[in-house]
Structures are given as C-alpha cells and as structure tokens.
Amino acid sequence: MPRAERPFTGPIVVVAQSGRALARSAGRAGISVHILDLYADRDTRELARSVTRIGSIATGFSADRLLEGLHRIEEREGIGGIVAGSGFEDRIDLLEAMARVGRLLGNPPEVVRRAKEPASFFALLTRLGIPHPETLTEAPAGSRADGTGWLCKRIGGAGGTHVRSAEACCPPGHYLQRRVPGRPHSVVFLADGRHAAIVGYNEIRVQGGTGAARFLYTGAVTVSEPPVAPAVEDAVQALVPALGLVGLCGLDFMLEVCGLDFMLEEGGRYSVLEVNPRPTGTFELYEDLGEEGPGLFQMHLSACEGRLPRTVRVLGAGVVAQEVLWASGTFAIPDDLRWPDWARDRPAAGTLIQTGEPICTLHARAAERKAVDRLLSARRASLCSELGWPLAA
C-alpha cells in the first residue's frame, strides 16, 4: 500500500474514549499516531506510536492527565495536530484546552457547541426544512411526560447510555425529544466546511427491551442506500456549510460518521436525531468493507485541509457488522488469553472489567445480512463459552 503524504509537521495525537480504530486507519496510510484514551487496549498499543490512559469509562477524561499527556508529547517531539474522537461533545472546555496546545484536525470547539446544543441545532433543522422529532428543553406545560411519548436525553451524551423515558420534568443539562417510530440508522460522511462526500449508511443496533439500558449502543451493520438516501444526502449537504463541519463525521437519523444520526420511519420517511461532528464508531465498518487505499483517517486529514474527494463511497462485496460485548458481571482478563482476529478493542491481561463496561468489539463480514448475523452470533457464543464471560442481558 503506498505511503500517503503528510501535510503536517510533527506527529499526530488522537484523543478519544477509544483511539484504536483511528490508529488502525492511520496505519493504512503509513501514519503512526500517539493515542490518549480511556482504555489503553492491547491492540491499540500494537498499532500506535505510544498509548497513554487518561481516565476511565466510569469517570471519563481526566483533564489533568489529558493535558499532561499532550504536553509530554509536545516537549519530546512536538505535535503536528490533534484528532479528537468521541467523548468531547459535553466537554467543550477540554477541546478548547487542547486547541491551546496543538492544532485541532477536526471541528473546532465552537462548531461542536453549535452542533450539540439542542435548542439551536433543532432550530437550524427547522430553518433548513430538515425533518426531526419535536424537541423541547423543558417539559411540556400542563402535562406529564409519562415515558410513552417522550425521551429524556443528556446534552452531549453519546452511546445511548444517557437516554431514558421522560419523567415529569427535564433535569438541567438534558432535553426532551418525542419518540419516533422506526429503526435508527446513521450516515458517515466527509466534509470540508462547504460540501460533503458520503461514505456509507448503516443501521444502528441497541439493546432493546424495557430496562434502563434499552437504548444502549450494541453495534451496527452496513446497509445499502435506503429509499430516503437522496433526502438524507440533501440534509447533509445543507448542514455542512450551515455548521461549518469538516473532516469525518456522522448523522444519526430515525430510518446513523463527521456522523449524522436519523430515524427511518414506517413508510419511508426519516427524522434527524443528531449530528456527530467527529469520527464516529461506525466509520470502521467501511474500512473493513473497502480494503484498498489509504483509509478514512487520511481522508479525514485531507478534508480538514479543504481537500474533499469527489467520491468516497466505499464499494466492497458483502455486509460488515460490529457488536460491542457488555459485561453483566465483574471479572479480570485472563493472562493466557489468545484473542481471535475478529475481536478488537482487546483489554490487556489482568484488566478488571466492571459490570456494564464494554469487554471488546466483535467484527464480521459475510455475503449478506443473515449470514453476517449468524457469524456474529457464533463468534459471540464461542468467545463467551470458552472464557465463561458474563454478558449484559
């Protein structure tokens, strides 16, 4: 694979809840990155120039450890740029602090703030004529949100852990969003501040059921373009200049890279749920689907420099899926464990996994949807049966 050109002086640092996928993508272009994240997983260490743990999944980022890690790299080698992944949607202060240490290769703090502040974001959708669920920053006057019609979401939340059926009031730092029937999807795209190039579509999977964690993200699977694809792409093309989005993002919608999430409603309509102004967890699906070329990390850097490819749709045979395994009990990773190639985000030997924390991520590729689901199921059963790992119900 040819080595990509790097328009940056000094090494690139990735800061995210997990930096493994970005390190893997960077390696496709011959770029060795430093990683600051919450896990310091075994495979991340194999992929990166250096790895520093800067917090935990339970407590989030430690501002002191994050900035100390950046300053240490800056003093030793200099920093060519900083790529921020997941975890900063509700920590704009950390993005601002990071920007004072090195150049952000991605959306600046003010863009992230505009994208994640619900009142202004959904007002923007209304002005642009983009469909979205009714959204309120306080409970409806004179009524009780009984959980059947409204969801309560934390501003800047990610991964579904923050979503609950609404109670009588909307706590500070949260907003209400009317439930929309359908299936959650997202579209991954690249942006240069003016235009967007679509990478691909995927269906988002959540735990389901009736428990508190029923909206928890459990994985995603690639899908062909849905019937609403032209309308969703129009929405992306309108939002990019309106918000000034750059780099790899996602849009979540109800029919979910930067990222835009949407919900596909019955009858083929869609509703935008949120935009993710940073590389999303689902971008790696397309790294697995399209195995040629320098990868999406290099394209992210180029897009941030204003060089957007004319086309970036990943063309590859089959269907790709990922599944996060969540622990329902506490246990330690065995010292003698030999991880299979299809398990990623591998904790180091001896790591203590707490109830409700992610264990690892399973990946699978097959000719069609049912086959990839069967493969994921078999891999899950094999790994868990062999090791006796408790999984979240």
3D architecture notes:
The chain has 393 residues and is α+β, with helices and mostly antiparallel strands. Among the domains are: 1-105, Rossmann fold (3-Layer(aba) Sandwich), CATH 3.40.50.20; 319-387, no CATH class. Helices cover 27% and strands 27% of the residues. It is built from ten helices and 21 strands. It has helices at 20-28, 42-47, 63-76, 92-99, 109-116, 118-128, 229-243, 283-289, 296-304, 369-387, and strands spanning 12-15, 34-37, 50-53, 55-56, 60-61, 81-84, 135-136, 150-154, 164-165, 174-178, 183-192, 196-206, 217-223, 246-254, 259-264, 270-276, 319-326, 331-332, 343-344, 352-353, 358-366. Strands 11, 12, 13, 14, 15, 16, 17, 19 and 21 form a nine-stranded antiparallel β-sheet that branches. A four-stranded parallel β-sheet has the order 3-2-1-6, sandwiched between helices. It has a four-stranded antiparallel β-sheet with strand order 7-10-8-9, covered by helices on one side. A hairpin with a 5-residue loop joins strand 15 and strand 16 (270-276). Helix 4 packs antiparallel against helix 5 (109-116). It is globular. It starts with 11 loop residues before the first strand and ends in a 6-residue tail after the last helix. The relative contact order is 0.13.
List keywords for this structure.
393 residues; alpha+beta; Rossmann fold; nine-stranded antiparallel sheet; four-stranded parallel sheet; 10 helices; disordered N terminus
SSE order and pairing:
Elements: E1 12-15, H1 20-28, E2 34-37, H2 42-47, E3 50-53, E4 55-56, E5 60-61, H3 63-76, E6 81-84, H4 92-99, H5 109-116, H6 118-128, E7 135-136, E8 150-154, E9 164-165, E10 174-178, E11 183-192, E12 196-206, E13 217-223, H7 229-243, E14 246-254, E15 259-264, E16 270-276, H8 283-289, H9 296-304, E17 319-326, E18 331-332, E19 343-344, E20 352-353, E21 358-366, H10 369-387
Parallel strand pairs: 1-2, 1-6, 2-3
Antiparallel strand pairs: 4-5, 7-10, 8-9, 8-10, 11-12, 11-14, 11-15, 12-13, 13-17, 14-16, 15-16, 17-21, 18-20, 19-21
